[in-house]
Amino acid sequence: MEMLRNIVPYIRSFRTGDKTLKILSNPQQKVDDLAAKSLGNLKNLRDSHAALSVGISGTVAGEPSSVTRLYLSVKPH
């Protein structure tokens, strides 16, 4: 990963149509895509955790929420 960061300035110095640029820019694109995918997964995990936290806190009537009931139904005993 550090090696890719060191290569990026050299990649940008090439002409856009250069074959070398296309070859060297592919790893950087893959790193960028992986980082974006990982960030999306972390956001989904955060949102799921927030929804579960709200659901576990219960409802005003004292009844368990639908999220809590669902969680308890699939939770290993």
From TrEMBL:
It holds the Pfam family Plant_NMP1. InterPro entries: Plant_AUG7. GO terms for molecular function: microtubule minus-end binding. This is Uncharacterized protein. It comes from Brassica campestris (Field mustard). The lineage of its organism: Eukaryota, Viridiplantae, Streptophyta, Embryophyta, Tracheophyta.
